[in-house]
Structures are given as C-alpha cells and as structure tokens.
C-alpha cells in the first residue's frame, strides 16, 4: 500500500468526523502488518475532555479486534502544514507500535513521513513500571 492510498483512506474517514464544537475534522488510517486498514475519525463531546482523536479511534478499533502489528498510520486534516498526532495519541500509539511510521498530511497535498520514535523521543512505557 502506498502512502497516497493510505492517505485516501484517512480522507474518507475524515468525512465521518463528529466535530460540531471545533469544526476541526481529522481522519486516520492505520495499516496492519497483514495489509488490513482500520480507520478512525475524531469524535467530540460537549464535555470537551471526553473527545477522542482519530488515531486513537483507529487503533482502539484494531486492538479491540485482537489486532497487533501496525506499520503505518496516515492522518489528514485541513491544516496549513501536515497534521501531527497530539501528545496523548503519540503515547498511546507507542504502547502498541513503537516502530510505527506516521504519514502526516493536509488537504493541500502536503505530506510528511516520520517515525513515531522521532515524534516521541522519551516515551513512558512498561520499562518505567
């Protein structure tokens, strides 16, 4: 699967976002080692702290189906530069896929690809416990 194809899945997921408060729709597409794709969109709530980011929705959908072994995630939003995962999402992604490649994009066609290890250089993980 190419990055462009993965981004298209994220664009499709973005269209399903529930963002009535921020009007900031985000889509994510998570590529599993076996080639399957799990998508997610951000879901807001009137109690703002209960909102869920697109990348965590995609990851939780996959994990809840017993899936492990993730290779890439694409994120898309209508931003000036390619969107990057928030800190909470970086931490949650790290738990399941420290070697994940993050494909960040915007609707203008700009793309940035970075390893999660660069985005979260000092993670908190099970080694700390």
As a whole number of angstroms, the C-alpha radius of gyration is 14 Å
C-alpha end-to-end distance:
37 Å
What is the H/E order? HEEHEHEEH
Shape: globular
- Quickly count the helices: 4
Q: Can you put this structure into words, describing what you see?
A:
With 129 residues, the protein is α+β, with helices and mostly antiparallel strands. Strands 2-1-3-4-5 form a five-stranded mixed β-sheet. It has helices at 3-14, 54-64, 87-96, 116-119; strands at 26-32, 37-41, 70-77, 101-106, 111-115. 29% of the residues lie in helices and 24% in strands. The chain has four helices and five strands; from the N terminus they run H-E-E-H-E-H-E-E-H.
Task: Produce the secondary structure layout.
Blueprint: H1 3-14, E1 26-32, E2 37-41, H2 54-64, E3 70-77, H3 87-96, E4 101-106, E5 111-115, H4 116-119
Parallel strand pairs: 3-4
Antiparallel strand pairs: 1-2, 1-3, 4-5
